[in-house]
Specification:
Elements: H1 8-36, H2 41-61, H3 65-79, H4 84-117
Length: 124
Amino acid sequence: MVGKKLSSQAQLKMDVVTEVRRKWGRVYGLVEQYGNAKTAEDTYLSQIARAATDVSRILMNNGYGVMADTANQMAMMAKRASGKQTKIRSMREFVVSLRQAMERAEKMIIDGEKEVSGEGEAGP
């Protein structure tokens, strides 16, 4: 797909994935800061919950319900009462899970463009 332009519909989808990737990077940073924090841990948890809820809203509004559920679970984990190590482990799993889902979504968008343009078809 190098050198090829995406259709306007595909570009809109890629813009959503790019925005979510940027915001999810912030969530990941907050999770790691929370993991290293010795004091004021609650401030990180509230920021994680807010940022994850924002990502969930963006995904849900754009038809990525399964990914939105993962982001929402992250927000719920930040609000839930449990041990710090349990929270960190679960949050890191959510981070990895959503990153993989975003990579799959990008690949599907690009593959969908190849099918539309006929690049994916085998010759005679």
